[in-house]
Write a structure and sequence with these properties.
Elements (H helix, E strand, L loop, with lengths): L2 H32 L3 H11 L8 E5 L5 H9 L4 E6 L2 H13 L5 E5 L12 E7 L8 H11 E12 L10 H18 L2 H13 L3 H10 L3 E8 L4 E7 L12
Helix pairs in contact: 1-4, 1-6, 2-3, 6-7
The structure holds S-adenosylmethionine (SAM).
The site of S-adenosylmethionine has 22 residues, from helix 1 and helix 3.
Length: about 250
């Protein structure tokens, strides 16, 4: 990768972090409001695919206000969760929720998904909800996920489908292009953030292409599942388990 590419991606991360920093206070409310509460069901479905193992740790990337991390703890009370995000004001909102609920097994960590501050093979499972769309380059994030996953570990991705597909006879696409950015702007008073949301959904690759990217990054057993007619997709990919050595002769 060239120096100018690095600078471009750094600039992108800074812009994304500043935007989420501005809307952190409205983020949860607008999520529930604009999705008519479906976002909570989608996170529940994501976490159903989480599989824990020997490390006892799950990493939630682009963890935001920590709703996925809390859902992981609800469904898998035995594991600890690291919730990593670029935007500290988002994590701070999440931390408030942890404190209110006396949750001590979720650790919020500031960091970038493209350079994870974790050793190789240190987590059993990685989740990322509505985060991969914001990360550039995605290939760096996939490489890091692959590095820190234990052999046989799993990545579970929840993301919008490509907004280029017509859904519900085009009604959803009209919502995406007009109602969503307008409502987001009126409530959060941030024109850029909700226009950005609509634009990135429309520019996002189709599920099949995303599956191809995961295979290219070295994952095996890649699959995906549409929810709500493909408004969102769940993607699951696994890192190959280690070959067991031939048992010694006795
Ligand atoms: C739409 S929010 C999703 C938050 C949360 N996962 C949820 O389900 O509500 C996207 C999050 O991705 C984070 N993000 C964007 N780029 C990132 C990166 N390179 N590394 C880590 N987090 C990133 C943003 O700071 C933001 O909190």
């Amino acid at each position: 990768m060239t120096r100018s590419n690095d600078a471009l991606f750094e600039g992108h991360s800074r812009r994304v972090a500043s935007m989420f920093g501005r809307i952190a206070g409205w983020y949860d409310f607008l999520n529930h409001f604009l999705s008519l509460g479906l976002d909570m069901y989608w996170r529940y479905r994501l976490v159903r695919f989480v599989r824990t193992g020997d490390t006892g740790r799950v990493l939630d990337l682009a963890a935001g206000t920590l709703d996925v991390a809390r859902e992981i703890r609800r469904q898998k009370p035995d594991g600890a969760v690291l919730g990593l995000d670029l935007t500290l004001p988002m994590l701070r909102r999440g931390l408030g929720k942890l404190q209110r609920h006396g949750e001590t097994q979720i650790l919020p960590v500031g960091g970038d998904a493209t350079t994870l501050p974790l050793p190789e093979r240190s987590v059993d499972c990685i989740t990322i909800a509505f985060g991969i769309r914001n990360i550039q380059p995605r290939s760096d994030a996939y490489a890091e996920m692959h590095r820190v996953l234990a052999p046989g570990g799993r990545v579970c991705i929840l993301e919008f489908g490509s907004g280029r597909n017509r859904i519900w006879k085009g009604l959803y696409n009209v919502y995406l292009k007009t109602i969503l950015p307008l409502t987001g702007r009126l409530i959060s008073r941030d024109a850029e953030a909700y226009a950005y949301l609509a634009e990135t959904i429309q520019a996002f690759p189709e599920a099949r292409e995303l599956a191809g990217e995961l295979l290219e990054a070295g994952f095996t057993r890649v699959g995906y599942l549409p929810l709500q007619s493909g408004i969102v997709y769940l993607h699951v990919a696994e890192k190959a388990a280690e070959e067991k050595g031939t048992p010694p002769d006795c």
